Request: fold
Amino acid sequence: MFSDRLGAAAQAIQAQFKHTLGQLDDVPVVRAMRHATHGGKRLRGFLVIESARLHGISSAQSIWAATAVEALHAYSLVHDDLPCMDDDDLRRGKPTVHRKWDEATAVLAGDALQTLAFELVTRSEASPEPAVRAELALRLARASGAEGMVLGQALDIAAETAEAPLSLDDITRLQHGKTGALIEWSATAGAVLAQADAAPLLRYARALGLAFQIADDVLDVTGDSATVGKAVGKDASAGKATFVSLLGLEAARRRAADLVSEACDSLEGYGAEAETLKEAARFVVTRAH
Amino acid sequence: MFSDRLGAAAQAIQAQFKHTLGQLDDVPVVRAMRHATHGGKRLRGFLVIESARLHGISSAQSIWAATAVEALHAYSLVHDDLPCMDDDDLRRGKPTVHRKWDEATAVLAGDALQTLAFELVTRSEASPEPAVRAELALRLARASGAEGMVLGQALDIAAETAEAPLSLDDITRLQHGKTGALIEWSATAGAVLAQADAAPLLRYARALGLAFQIADDVLDVTGDSATVGKAVGKDASAGKATFVSLLGLEAARRRAADLVSEACDSLEGYGAEAETLKEAARFVVTRAH
Reply:
């Protein structure tokens, strides 16, 4: 059920990107945007669509917000991969944008993908309620800017030259910015779209986001690059503090499992309808990529 | 009157940036955002405040949209100045962000400034009407993404390696993206804030935006870098087609003057209240920086 719905979400998001980007001029920066938005698990977009379904919002409507968060995620990957940032050659098993084109195109494609995210959530198709569109955009800005994702990335860069290794609190704050804030936006989007109470989904998303990041650190140690689709072992060889280096491999796995239980418990009020989101939480810590 | 109001707008925008950025963590990326949002003419923000005043909207309200467009403009400058783009060391008479910090900080500060722009227009302070906030954000996205500013920048980069020099139509389209779209957003923001007809302000803005760019090309030939606050003569020495290279210096100046008349004529319906915006149009082609 979960994997079917994840696959269906991925297909719908891909179709939406094809439609949206197909309307733009066929210049290199737009081709780079297509490249950067192709593939990936689409976990964030799936969380939007499933949390919307829980509140009776169809995927025909939630697809706009789902595609928006995937555009924002894609922008962050394109810029993170730049030589002056993580300097990665491979992403989702394909060359990164600056390797396939050049750095200028990667900067611009990332910039335009961020803009596209805000366009998609404020288009009238995203919600018949203007208040919902404004709220989605405001929350997206707070999740992704200097209070959210960019702060996390900046703390990550600062950590590389810090004299003392990061503490568990530091890493938790850093990772909340880097990945947690956007996962929270995604999993609460359904409640925002329905103008309903977002508190249960927020509790779910907080646990899920942290579990997701711990699992990522575990994969960096235990995965191989062909399966993961990007370079692995980089954090360990760079001597970076991670959940695994701080907790140890087994304790990190246990912590992730506890967080999955916590995420599932948060959704009890939704009944059987929430089963797919619970499966998603279990998937996050057992995935191989 | 015009210079007083331009100065007042600049002060109000600076105070708004200080307040907004002062609430963020004092990390290098936030310090870089402060650096990048300091100074400048604030012409775009001024257009927001003045077009709002024409429609009876106070500067206490329009300051949010005015600061938003200046944040977006600042992001575009930080990224345009990067080594992989225009590779500039000097901006507004001060070192560019990547020179004062590094490239990673410049990428992230630009990213966060774009996000900040969307946060500022969707905050409830920007307008009591959610429909207005959503509309401001949607228009801002369209003006700045792969249909607007980023497209203009991409066409500019493509022009550098193009085999044939650009035509007047090409340059006009390129410059509409690079500067015109954001000037149009700014000058029509007042009508959007008031939910009024934006057509007269759009005509004004189209003429103003083109006049502004022609004047910029003239300054690149006739100005000196100390007064202009950035490197000059770069376009001519790079052999880039500009309005001046295509039209000649005198014809370019005449075209700019004609556009200023056109801009002023568009505002006839507003009566004496529009005098400041007319003065702004005259200033744009006579400025020395």
